[in-house]
Amino acid sequence: MSIVPHFDYNLRKDEISGFAHNGKSKQIKLADHALVFMIRGIQKNYKQPVAYTFSSGSTSTAELATLIKEVIRKLHGVGLRVLATVCDQGTNNVSSINSLIKETKGKYFLKNEELYRDTFEVDDKEVISLYDLPHLIKGIRNNLINKHLICSIDGTKKFAKWDHIVKLYAKDPAYKGIRLVKN
Question: Which of 3, 62, 84, 91 stands 20 to 30 A from 98 (CA)?
């Protein structure tokens, strides 16, 4: 996420903060992005940030893939089991996940085995990558606004477009529940 670049002086530590920092080393560049790793419980309802970095510009694909593995290893090390990752479809996020999947498939290839799922492994533990549903819906909306979805129904080519959704909503804008739509 973008942040406002600025410097602060920490009197207690006698240091200036505001530089890019990946958790291991500081750069002499003003940070303008923050990256936050958060865990969420599956059996219990909780959310907790567990790691963050500051960068100048977006975090690179290679560095993000490394950070994902490091955070998962640390979580496994304290007894938490990471089942899945969730992120939006930002270019670096998708590229990082794809590189982790490719790395895992390469490991299986060297063992003369084949991995049929698009998952990745950290220390031989499978992790499923998911994309954030609200962002997926927004992407579908944006694609329908700019393009038409072509599908075949009973052998007939049909088009879906954003205008269809607008017209459907206009029929009953006050209705908030689920409904079946007549043909």
Answer: 3
